Amino acid sequence: MPNIINDIKLDFKDVLFLPKRGKAESRSDVDLNRELTFKNSGQTYSGIPIIASNMDTVGTFEMAKALAKHGCFTCIHKFYNVEEWVKFAKENPEVLKYVAASSGSGEKDFLKLKEIVAAVPKLGFICLDVANGYSEFFVMFVRKVRKEFPTMTIMAGNVVTGEMVQELILSGADIIKVGIGPGSVCTTRKKTGVGYPQLSAVMECADAAHGLNGHIISDGGCTCPGDVAKAFGAGADFVMLGGMLAGHDQSGGEIIEKNGKKVKEFYGMSSTTAMHKYSGGVAEYRASEGKTVEVPYRGDVNATMLDVLGGVRSTCTYIGAVKLKQLTRKTTFIRVTQQTNEVYQGSTSQP
Ligand code: 5GP
Hints:
Elements: E1 15-17, E2 34-37, E3 44-47, E4 50-52, H1 61-68, E5 73-76, H2 82-91, E6 99-103, H3 107-119, E7 125-129, H4 136-148, E8 153-159, H5 162-170, E9 175-178, H6 188-192, H7 198-210, E10 215-219, H8 225-233, E11 238-241, E12 255-258, E13 261-267, H9 272-279, E14 292-296, H10 301-319, H11 327-330, E15 333-335
Parallel strand pairs: 4-5, 4-11, 5-6, 6-7, 7-8, 8-9, 9-10, 10-11
Antiparallel strand pairs: 1-15, 2-3, 12-13, 13-14
Helix pairs in contact: 5-7, 8-10
The structure holds guanosine-5'-monophosphate.
Guanosine-5'-monophosphate binds near residues 55, 183 and 186.
């Protein structure tokens, strides 16, 4: 007989923060920087732990340059060639400490990763990204990468449960990517029925990781700065963003004019669009698990980043945290049935 977990599991939309007394008077008093030392690599990250996703429309070199100015991080997508990496590294040495090279778990991916790491010796981070982090094969791949690169910081995922977070950490990963199905252009939950509500996944996985001195990334499902704060509040060490960073000058893809409005294409990495672009089509044995959408063109990503960072700083002042580090400790979530008043939804308003 199948098991059922009857505990209620929550998403970002199911909670709000309880305001609390605190010392920070204004947003400018709040320090969002963190210093994190990783379990297996022994390396340290110092910066604001927000990450641009390794999607080809988001994890670009241009995005990395813009985000590094804020001390934020970018997982560079896996489709740049070695020459492009070398050029980027030569021209932007100061940005290198804020980027990871991404890789899938195939042999070709591994060989390319080795070439990139050899060509860019200052690179400190690797992001191993597969749709399903639960396979034995992936665990063995993480072990192989750890053996090959003993001092590099390895991000690996995606998973949503504590025992798998621990298995990946014990296999050599430092930071575990958490999230199956919450993404803005993800259709995994529709196509497969698999997933886990993101806020609960983050709370449970953070607990499992921190017990081993490991770290986690909340990956997917953030729709606004408040969600980013909730992910940190739930215990995420890093928060990864896809859709919130799409549609900007620094995002991949062309600006298209449609009915007098400027838009940019944004798609999931398992969408039909991505599979046609990189794998010559959708293989017969698999379904596409991503959407293709058009998002409004939003100009320079700097304005969006200021909005996100301002929002998280403001959360900290509301709940009495002077530093981002204190956010989880100060967090009490209230379960809610309504997030916002939608009476003027659809009318003209500023974000
Ligand atoms: P967002 O911030 O847009 O809500 O979520 C971004 C995350 O969605 C990515 O970092 C990645 O983990 C996930 N993602 C990206 N493309 C796809 C896809 O095609 N299918 C699925 N299932 N997830 C995707």
